[in-house]
Each structure stands twice: as structure tokens, then as C-alpha cells.
Specification:
With about 325 residues, the protein is of the alpha/beta class. The protein is built from 13 helices and ten strands. Helix 8 packs parallel to helix 9 and helix 9 packs parallel to helix 11. It comes from Posidoniimonas corsicana. This is DUF58 domain-containing protein.
Length: about 325
């Protein structure tokens, strides 16, 4: 069922071993957890046939039409058959916003790891990784409204504040994805990368409008949709009382009767999200809570390497948003 643009880098397919998410969650300290994931990721890259990938991430960006060919790395082209140009200092320092959903629906856990625990570990891992790359990382923790906000910083001590903000337990009710996206689009002047981590259990129309507005202002974006495997397959066998975490309602549901309706509605919602993101040039990746967290670093690297959209593309996106 997870068909929403769910791509991984070639090195994620072979030559690497990953840590099981439930095993990782036994590490109570969030920063230490992120450190273990990042160090394992680096070690895996250097053992794999694609060990140059991490070097390219730090020093290169993908060639775009109009770039000066004098700065094309011909040796890298010969080795990887990919076109990259050396990045200058002002291009090397990325501005990244991590937007993390902590609404009540993120507390769902059918087994293994809760969506919230997985999501905040994802954010901590990406924050730690980008901090090591000397990038500026910001954070917005939200449910119906933004509960915690940290502007992007590179200074010493910022990573500690980011980790502390991610420790927040989900205590909001519904989800309002549009507000944090709108705030980022309004307040950020310099183009950057926005990483939205959410289950996206919300209407798609407002999300599309805000994503389109954000893209029209030149920001790149990746959406990591965190879902429990049980939500993807509706793997419940017995009739039971289901508790809606956001509304508080309790419903008696017979899976034999409800499964087909649920899957039809879920797939329709997923297809709409996928199509909207495709139209807007946004990477959408489904992250079941049993998916190795290292794979999301590949998604982040690929999105960053593919930065450099042309102004014409952003103009087209702006027209779509209106």
C-alpha cells in the first residue's frame, strides 16, 4: 500500500545493515539515539559501493541548466556518471526547518513503536546529522497550533535546545498542518529546506495550498509521512472498541465489515496526497514505524542534492497556488 513516492537511494538496497527501530527506542536519551543512527549510517556508507555519497552531500550539488561548466567536477562524473558542481560557501550552509506533528493521533501504537516516538527520533536524527554538517537547523513542534518554536541556528548549545523541545509529549487534540507551513513561508527570507514529519491525518486541501505557497517562495520540501503498519493494512482481526485519540469518541467496529471501507478511504486520501505532492515537486515518503530510520537520511540527502530548481519552475508553482 505504501506507494507514495517511496524511493530510497541505491545504497539503501544493498551493502548496508540497519538497526531495528524498537531496539533503538531502548536508548532513552534522544540525542544519544540520534548519534547511534547517524554513526551507523556513516559507517554503512563507507562500507558500501556508494561511499562517495556522503562526500558529495557535503561538497557538491546537482548540476542545473545554466550552471558554469567550469565548476563541473569531471572526475566525479567519470566515477559516478552523475553531474555535480562544486558548491560555494554560501551554498554549502543549508537552512533547514524540521516541522514535527505532536497531535494526539501521533500517540497511536498498535505494536512496536508509537508514531510520536518514531517521528521525534526522525527529527532528532536529522537535526543531529545537519548539525554535524554545520547547517542551520530550526524546529517547529505543533498540533492545532505551534507549541514550540526554535529558529535555525548553528551556534553551540542549539542542538541541546532542539533535543529538549522534541521531548514534548503529544497533548494537543486535532492536527493543523497548515499553520506551521504558513508561518515558515512568511518568516523565512532565505531559501531553505522544509522537512514535515506527520501522519497527515488531516484534510488535504489546506495542506496543498500552504505547500504550494511555500514552494512558490523557493523552498525545497520533503514530507515524511509516519504511519503505524496497522494503519496501512488495517490488520485487526477481532471486533473491538476503537478510541479516537483526537476527538475522544469511542466506536465499536467489526473489522470484517469496516476493513474494505477503511482501506478505500485511506487509499483515496493517500492518492490525493501523492498527486498533490507530485504536482508541486515535493518528495513524499511513507515511513512505517518499522522502517529503519537510516533510510530517511538517504531521502534527506537526495532532496538536498536535488536542490537548485529554476525560477521558472517556482513561478509555475506560484500560479498553481493562486
Amino acid at each position: 500500500m505504501a506507494t507514495e513516492n517511496q524511493r530510497t537511494a541505491p545504497s539503501a538496497q544493498r551493502g548496508l545493515s540497519f538497526i531495528d527501530p524498537p531496539a533503538l527506542m531502548r536508548i532513552k536519551n534522544l540525542q544519544m539515539r540520534a548519534k547511534v543512527i547517524v554513526e551507523g549510517f556513516y559507517a554503512g556508507i563507507h562500507r558500501s559501493p556508494y561511499h562517495g555519497f556522503s562526500v558529495e552531500f557535503s561538497e557538491y550539488r546537482q548540476y542545473s541548466p545554466g550552471d558554469d561548466l567550469r565548476y563541473l567536477d569531471w572526475r566525479l562524473l567519470a566515477r559516478t556518471d552523475r553531474h555535480y558542481v562544486k558548491r560555494f560557501e554560501d551554498e554549502t550552509n543549508l537552512l533547514c526547518y524540521l516541522l514535527v506533528d505532536t497531535s494526539r493521533s501521533m500517540a497511536f501504537q498498535a505494536g512496536g513503536v508509537s508514531k510520536h516516538e518514531y517521528a521525534r527520533t526522525l527529527a532528532a536524527t536529522m537535526g543531529y546529522f545537519l548539525y554535524l554538517q554545520r547547517d542551520a537547523v530550526g524546529l517547529a513542534v505543533f498540533d492545532e497550533v505551534i507549541r514550540e518554536y526554535l529558529p535555525p541556528r548553528r551556534r553551540a548549545g542549539h542542538l541541546r535546545h532542539l533535543m529538549a523541545a522534541l521531548q514534548r509529549q503529544p497533548d494537543g487534540m486535532g492536527t493543523n498542518v497548515a499553520e506551521p507551513l504558513e508561518q515558515v513561508a512568511r518568516s523565512v527570507k532565505k531559501r531553505g529546506l522544509v522537512v514535515l514529519i506527520s501522519d497527515l491525518i488531516a484534510p488535504t486541501d489546506l495542506l496543498k495550498r500552504q505547500v504550494a505557497y511555500l514552494r512558490s517562495r523557493g523552498h525545497e520540501m520533503i514530507i515524511l509521512r509516519v504511519l503505524d503498519p496497522a494503519e496501512l493494512a488495517f490488520s485487526f482481526d477481532d471486533a473491538r472498541i476503537f478510541h479516537d485519540l483526537e476527538s475522544g469518541k469511542k466506536l465499536y467496529i467489526d473489522p470484517d465489515v469496516a476493513k474494505r471501507k477503511y482501506l478505500d478511504a485511506f487509499q483515496s486520501h493517500a492518492a490525493t496526497l501523492s498527486q498533490d505532492c507530485k504536482e508541486l515537486g515535493v518528495e513524499l515518503v511513507v515511513c512505517p514505524t518499522d522502517r529503519p530510520l537510516e533510510l530517511s537520511l538517504f531521502d534527506l540527502l537526495r532532496t538536498r542534492l536535488e536542490r537548485g530548481r529554476t525560477p521558472a519552475r517556482n513561478d509555475r508553482i506560484a500560479r498553481r497556488a493562486r
